[in-house]
Each structure stands twice: as C-alpha cells, then as structure tokens.
Model the fold of this input.
Amino acid sequence: MNLKEKFKDINTYFSPKVIGEVNDVYVKAVSIKGDKVPWHTHEKEDELFYIVEGSLLFEIENEESFTMNPGDLFIVKKGISHRVSSQKECKIMLIEQKTTAHTGTVDTEITKSIQQQLY
Amino acid sequence: MNLKEKFKDINTYFSPKVIGEVNDVYVKAVSIKGDKVPWHTHEKEDELFYIVEGSLLFEIENEESFTMNPGDLFIVKKGISHRVSSQKECKIMLIEQKTTAHTGTVDTEITKSIQQQLY
Done:
C-alpha cells in the first residue's frame, strides 16, 4: 500500500485507523486538524509519530514544544504527558502497541476505542 | 529526527541501524544496493518495510514479485520466505520485533547481529 494513498479512505479527523499489524503492534493512519487532542499519557506504551503531510505541533510536559514536518519521526516514551495539534490538516502514521488507548486514560469527545479504529 | 536526514549516517549497504525503539520493536534504517539479501524467513516475526528513497524489488515465495516505491509500505507476515533487492540505491525504514534476526536463519556475508545494528 502507498501511505499517502491510504489517507484517501480517512475522512474524519482525530479518528485513527489501523492499516497494518506487526506482531503486537498496530500501524495506524490518522488525520488531524485543530487542538482536540487532550493532554494524555500512555503509562506502559511508547508511541511513534511519523508525519506524512502537514505540520504537527508537539507539546511535551516540562519541555519545549516543537513542530514536526513531513518525513519527521518522533517517539514519545511511556509515561510522558503529551499533546499534539495542527492548525491545518496533518496526516500522521502512528506505530503503537495494540493495547495503547487513543487518549490514554482521558476520555473526550474525540476518543476512539480500539474497536472503532479497526476497519 | 527526520528520516531522510538519518540516512546521512548510513554509509554501508545491507547494514540496518536501529534509530528508535517502541517497546518491543526496533525502528531501523537500512540502505541497500544489489541482490545480496538471501531468501529467508522470520518464523515468529512480522516485518514492516517502508520505502524512503529508491525502488525495491520484493520477492515472495510462490507469489508474484512487486516493486515498492517511495511512500510504499508492506508487511511481510511471519513464516513467509522473502527476498529484497534493488539495482540502484534504496533507502528503507524497517519496523521489527527486537528479536528479529537480520536474514532469518540464513547466514551470509551481509548478515548483521542485533549488536551490530545498534549505534
């Protein structure tokens, strides 16, 4: 599959979709626009962000924020509170443990269950 | 980190380097040119290929071969014999279990231990 092409199927913001499986890990595609992702933590799971299109503001508790651009890759380690947002549409590939909850233990209007993330 | 930039550190073909860690998974960058990768199988591990630059010929036992281009992503499932090659330089990101042996149980001149794949 072509990663950019895959995003043609993704029509809802903040709604990750599982596009692949590597043993205990899901590969997900998610498109976001705006700042609806709450501050949250994954206590036991690292999470990889890879930017496919657009720019992503990455905020990490007690650290300086930074902007990710296409081709940029960042792994937020377990237990680190973080939040992502983008003014314009941003397309992201995520690599996550299958157990990773979308917005950690924080439940908001955008929060999707793993079931909702499967096609 | 920017994935393309990361390849500036990778000066040897067929020598995967670990560039990130997501729980039990390694993210690796590898550059190849030629057909030195032997047919091999990972009995217990799926393996994700993502093409950063160049083209990759992907061969799978008893299936039709196909060519991967930049932005293409393919997951070869555990137990499936496969081989990759490229006439020109091809830059690849791999997502693999930490336990995944470079060329499965086949040992060749290019085979690297996990230790050799760490910076």
User: Anything to note?
Assistant: Chain A touches chain B at residues 1-4, 19-25, 27, 45-48, 50, 69, 71-75, 78, 95-97 (CB under 8 Å). Chain A has one domain: 3-117.
